[in-house]
Design brief:
The structure holds 2 protein chains of 2 kinds.
Chain A (H helix, E strand, L loop, with lengths): L1 H55 L5 H10 L2 E7 L4 E4 L10 H8 L4 E2 L22 E7 L2 E9 L1 H49 L15 H48 L5 H32 L7 E5 H18 L3 E5 L4 E5 H17 L6 E8 L3 E8 L6 H4 L23 H11 L3 E7 L2 E9 L5
Parallel strand pairs in A: 7-9
Antiparallel strand pairs in A: 1-2, 1-5, 3-4, 4-5, 6-8, 9-10, 10-12, 11-12
Helix pairs in contact in A: 1-4, 4-5, 5-6, 6-10, 7-8, 8-10
Chain B lengths: L2 E5 L3 H13 L3 E5 L2 H10 L4 E5 L7 H11 L4 E5 L4 H10 L3 E4 L4 H17 L6 E3 L2 E4 L4 E4 L2 E4 L2 H12 L5 E2 H9 L8 H15 L5 E6 L3 E6 L2
Parallel strand pairs in B: 1-2, 1-3, 3-4, 4-5
Antiparallel strand pairs in B: 6-7, 7-8, 8-9, 10-12, 11-12
Helix pairs in contact in B: 2-3, 6-8
The chains are: A alpha+beta, B alpha/beta.
Chain lengths: ~450, ~220
């Protein structure tokens, strides 16, 4: 995690340096375009004032007066036509004034060195201590024409200010670095914790406690997302494990019963016994066969990107055809099957919906009472249809009713019972109905169970 | 008893279906492919055909179409595929019913019986109306206010017989003989059980009729005006 600290500090410093450069360039440009002229005008006025004073007071020595002005915070360069030059005040950094300029000023022109000072990106004209960065005015004294060049002595005027600003700047940088270290620590701490938590999670430990999920920022959100993710993974893992243990149990128990009865069949038996045993073997084989088929359906529709092959078809025809398939089983059990169906066009996956009705009807037959009845009622609404399938079985108790859509859950836990359930049918039904944006609802009492399926007529909406 | 044509290229299926049908009292004609089946039909008239889908030379769907065009007999298709499209194809070809392999011989017998009954009942128009209740013998159903009630075979036959002659008293022996057949070995109590079931079912549904007991004699159906 050290690298993250260093990165934070380097980044802060980098940001500061970059900001400084940008600010410098921008303010320099501002000086060049806006302040330069007014600075020039201001200094021209001062220089003109000085020249006027010298001319109006011929009894005051030009050298003495220049020296006084220089002491007040100016740098002055004085030249006459004869080529005599004098400097007053602090020294100029560069003496880069052309002779031609001096001549022009002596002959009466005003030199605007400040306004015409060349603009460069990293040189502030304001601070450039150069002879060419001055204002030059002509002065008459004692009959001699002089050229007087003047600029404020920035160093003298702003010396303490320089120190002050320098200190301020240095302290700002130093304090920033220290504070960045401290704040980085607080920022990085939850990340460190998260990283430890991911290691634990990878090792299979889902008990994540010390994540800082109370923070109100993105890191807090990340932590709480991480916590809920690990909970979900734990849950999925549990489901997966349960699923596998259930499958193995549900495959093992019919297999062992087949094996047992097969052994019995090798002994001398009466025809009635033999018949009974082969029927049991048959029954268990059917159960295994149904279960593998259902597992296949489940695994295919479990894929999130399972493509529904939707088509518009008549729901009544589908149900009537299925009822016809069940005619024999219904009759075998002495059941009465009643139905009232309407012509309803529905857009859904026909084969999957057939699986739904097949499962529901087969449950209604399997778990019905002797000489009971099954009722299929269809109610039409504007945008959806409701199909209610009722049986007259012994019903499902309240504790079981919440679990009947769980995989491998069976109300009749005694798997020796003569009903060939796999505990997968209703979970498949629920899944398919969900995929069609429908809903399924169970009502049950001791007189029977009603399963109500609500389906949108066009499930793609 | 009726003669039934069984067509399948799998000799085991032909044998197994044939045995079950013979045991149930039908006469059986068998063929191994579609062409042979049509020859058989020309020689010996049959009441119903059980046809496998997958066959050489002429498959079951084609055979069904020909039978539909040339003979007025019901067809049951046997198919190994349980896919829904195949079923739709079967019905398009004109089959009356289909069974998916592997099937229970009992179920095949049930469907054959039901089809034969429906074909014989057709054209006779013997549906019975008692007030709001309509009894359809061709598909063993009762219609009350647009809702269809499909009854178990024996219960339906019992109701049908009683409703055909409302007010007439039938003794238990008569009912047994008419519905279960003269050789029925069961108890006369069976009648009572079925009557009781019919009563429980219909008292909730309608009061157009009720089944009355005549002590020591039997039962009759009373029609309410």
């Amino acid at each position: 995690m050290k690298s993250l600290y260093v990165k934070f500090v380097v980044m802060t410093l980098g940001i500061m340096i970059l900001s400084f450069f940008i600010a410098f360039v921008v303010s320099n440009a501002y000086y060049q375009y806006n302040l330069k002229d007014s600075n020039d005008a201001k200094n021209t006025e001062i220089a003109t004032g000085v020249a006027a004073f010298i001319e109006e007071n011929p009894d005051v020595s030009i050298e003495d007066y220049s020296a006084t002005i220089a002491d007040a915070g100016y740098q002055i360069y004085l030249a006459d036509a004869a080529g005599n030059t004098q400097f007053f005040g602090a020294e100029f950094g560069e003496l880069n004034l052309e002779d031609e300029v001096t001549g022009n000023v002596i002959s009466g022109e005003v030199y605007h060195g400040m306004a015409n000072f060349e603009a460069e990106i990293f040189v502030t004209g304001f601070f450039a201590n150069e002879l060419s960065n001055t204002i030059g005015v002509p002065v008459e004294h004692d009959g001699t024409s002089y050229a007087l060049f003047l600029r404020p002595d920035i160093n003298l005027l702003f010396n303490e200010m320089h120190l002050l600003f320098g200190l301020l700047f240095a302290l700002t940088v130093l304090l920033s670095i220290i504070l960045v270290f401290i704040s980085a620590h607080f920022l990085i701490k939850p990340v460190t914790k998260l990283s430890e938590a991911t290691k634990l999670l990878a090792a299979g430990d889902y008990s994540i406690h010390d994540l800082d999920t109370n923070r109100k920022d993105e890191l807090g959100e990340l932590s709480s997302n991480f916590a809920s993710m690990s909970k979900q993974i734990e849950y999925n893992d549990k489901i997966q494990k349960d699923f596998i243990s259930n499958i193995s149990h549900d495959i093992q128990s019919p297999l062992s019963s087949i094996k047992g009865y097969n052994k019995l069949l090798n002994k001398p038996l009466t025809p009635a016994e033999r018949n009974e045993y082969t029927e049991t073997v048959d029954f268990e084989i059917d159960r295994l066969s149904t279960m593998t088929k259902q597992l296949l359906i489940l695994s295919s529709i479990d894929h999130e990107d399972y493509l529904l092959r939707k088509e518009t078809y008549n729901l009544r025809e589908q149900l009537e055809r299925l009822i016809k398939v069940y005619e024999w089983k219904v009759n075998e059990k002495g059941l009465m099957l009643s139905h009232k169906l309407h012509d309803t066009e529905i857009k859904a996956d026909k084969a999957l919906m057939n699986t739904v009705w097949d499962n529901l009807l087969s449950n209604a037959v399997k778990y019905n009472a002797e000489a009971g009845s099954i009722d299929i009622e269809m109610t039409e609404y504007k945008a959806h249809t409701v199909i209610a399938i009722s049986d007259t079985g012994e019903g499902i108790d309240d504790t079981s009713i919440d679990k009947i859509f769980d995989r491998f859950y069976r109300v009749d836990t005694a798997r020796t019972s003569n009903v060939a359930g796999t505990g997968l049918g209703l979970s498949i039904v629920k899944k398919i109905i969900d995929m069609h944006n429908g809903s399924i609802n169970v009502r049950s009492n001791e007189n029977g169970t009603t399963i109500t399926v609500r389906l949108p007529l066009d499930s793609s909406e | 008893m009726d003669r039934i044509l069984v067509v399948d290229d799998d000799p085991n299926i032909v044998k197994f279906v044939g045995l079950n049908l013979t045991e149930a009292g039908y006469r059986v004609v068998t063929a191994n492919d579609g062409r042979r089946a049509l020859e058989c039909l020309k020689e010996t008239p049959c009441a119903l055909a059980v046809v496998d889908v997958m066959m050489p030379f002429m498959d079951g769907l084609e055979l069904t179409k020909v039978i539909r065009e040339e003979y007025d007999i019901p067809v049951i298709i046997l198919t190994a595929k349980s896919h829904i499209d195949d079923k739709a194809d079967g019905f398009k070809a004109g089959t009356d019913d289909y069974l998916v392999k592997p099937f229970e011989p009992k179920e095949l017998l049930f469907r054959i019986e039901a089809l034969l009954r429906r074909y014989k009942a057709e054209g006779e128009h013997d549906l019975i109306r008692i007030g709001e209740v309509t009894i359809h013998p061709e598909n063993y159903s009762v219609d009350i206010h647009g809702k269809i009630y499909m009854l178990p075979l024996k219960e339906f036959e019992l109701l049908h017989l009683l409703a055909e002659y409302p007010g007439q008293v039938f003794s238990r022996e008569q009912l047994i003989e008419q519905i279960w057949g003269a050789f029925y070995e069961g108890d006369e109590r069976t009648v009572d059980v079925h009557i009781k079931r019919l009563r429980t079912r219909f008292t909730k549904l309608t009061d157009a009729f009720s089944i009355k007991t005549v002590r020591g004699v039997g039962y009759f159906l009373e029609q309410k005006s």
